[in-house]
Specification:
Blueprint (H helix, E strand, L loop, with lengths): L2 H11 L19 E2 L10 H18 L11 H14 L6 E4 L2 H14 L6 E5 L4 H14 L2 E5 L9 H7 L4 E7 L11 H10 L3 E5 L18 E4 L13 E5 L43 H17 L1 H23 L5 E2 L12 E4 L7 H6 L2 E2 L1 E3 L3 E4 L8 H17 L2
Parallel strand pairs: 1-11, 3-4, 3-5, 5-6, 6-7
Antiparallel strand pairs: 2-8, 7-8, 9-10, 10-13, 12-13
């Protein structure tokens, strides 16, 4: 079948297709194919309206009274909504706050403190830089040992590798559920089981998972998780992150950044730090209320669509990317640097060819926006709620034409 005809047929049969109209795209936009939803999601029309209403009515109208109108409860309220819509977690275990980097530090430090007498952290060499840098810093602070697992950049971490790495000295295992480079989808439930058998805690980075693949933190018996909200959750540039802490673990956690918002009686402003009960203890400073506004809109949309339907379309989109890559790009020297098995594939596909860096400017000039990761990986990240199959066809056809023109 002609690949463009197939794109039209897939779009016509897509139950999520009507939701694309809810995203904001300027009439004069020069973008013909946005394939970087795994890095920054598009804004919703409702987001623009909510931000305008918030500034005019709540901020300007209520001023400081807004704090007593409910703003202080947003970190937990939005956390519960996100938990239900995308994380497979019961209420009281997710909070919105800070950045992914800060929350990673908080959770990792808290986990290590909760495992006294253990001196090793297990992590992999191809995890996102922030994850590695944070743990390098914590290891230096606490005199701990880092156990590095060498992972294939075109694949990802496996349960067998974890089984070989953990032992009675392991305090924490930190991994990404979906590898940022390859898109490898880890077997989180089995890895949790293996780590727990050794007495270690697990901390999952869900930045490339939340809003794209099905996550079941409670069912997986996960301990801790963190992730950003500006990719598939469309929270906007620099949107606040989220943290998950299993309810049974919360009483034993003591996060290191002891700010007033995490205090049991924050407005008493008395001496000494007494952490609030539950997930609120992970808060430190004043919640980024304005930056949370877009999450209201996207959680509405995600709840309407359902994460199961989102995942189904995500797999269809990445299957289609693979088909186009095999038909058009493989004869031009492009390889797929990631999993083909849908059970092990996240929401993006990484294509590899030396010299891809030289094509970024020509692609952007022609209105095609993918993502690039050194040394030669082009990440194709079609966001299921905002991307059509025809848009994927347009983008990869431009890439094919540029490759054809190369000497």
């Amino acid at each position: 079948m002609d690949l463009l005809v197939r794109a039209h047929e897939l779009d016509a049969a897509d139950p999520l297709a009507p939701l694309r109209d809810r995203f904001l795209a300027p009439d004069d936009s020069d973008v013909i194919s946005y394939l970087d939803g795994n890095s920054l999601g598009r804004p919703l029309r409702a987001t623009a309206e909510l931000l305008d209403t918030f500034v005019r009515d709540q901020w300007a109208g209520r001023l400081i009274r807004g704090w007593t109108d409910g703003w202080l409860d947003w970190p937990e309220q939005l956390g519960d909504r996100l938990a239900a819509a995308a994380l497979g977690a019961a209420p009281g275990q997710v909070v919105i706050a800070d950045s992914t980097t800060v929350l990673l530090y908080k959770l990792a430090r808290a986990a290590i403190t909760a495992r006294p007498g253990r001196g090793t952290i297990v992590l992999d060499t191809d995890n996102f830089p922030t994850d590695r840098y944070i743990l390098e810093g914590i290891a230096a602070e606490r005199g701990l040992t880092l156990h590095w697992i060498e992972t294939d950049p075109a694949a990802g971490i496996t349960p067998a590798q974890i089984a070989d790495a953990v032992d009675a000295d392991t305090a924490l295992v930190l991994l990404s559920h979906v590898a940022y480079r390859s898109g490898w989808l880890a077997d989180a439930a089995e890895i949790n089981r293996i780590a727990h058998a050794a007495g270690a805690l697990t901390l999952w980075d869900l930045s490339h998972s939340a809003g794209s693949v099905e996550v079941e933190l409670d069912a997986w018996d996960a301990d801790l998780a963190v992730g950003c909200t500006y990719k598939y959750l469309n929270g906007g540039p620099g949107a606040p992150a989220f943290a998950y802490a299993r309810s049974s673990l919360q009483p034993s956690l003591r996060q290191p950044i002891q700010g007033w918002m995490g205090h049991r009686a924050r407005f008493d402003m008395g001496p000494g730090y007494d952490p609030a009960p539950g997930i609120r203890a992970l808060l430190s400073g004043t919640p980024p209320i304005l930056a949370m506004v877009p999450l209201h809109a996207n959680l509405d949309l995600l709840s309407t669509a359902g994460i199961t339907a989102v995942r189904h379309k995500s797999l269809q989109l990445t299957d289609y990317v693979l088909d186009l890559a095999d038909a058009w790009l493989a004869p031009l020297g492009v390889t797929v640097a990631g999993p083909r098995d849908p059970a092990r594939r996240g929401g993006h596909v990484t294509l590899s060819k030396p010299g891809f860096a030289d094509l970024l400017d020509p692609l952007w000039t022609r209105g095609v926006i993918p993502d690039y990761r050194r040394p030669d990986g082009l990440r194709i990240g079609p966001a299921p709620l905002s991307t059509s199959f025809t848009e994927v066809h347009r983008g990869l056809s431009v890439l094919r034409d540029l490759l054809t023109q190369q000497p």
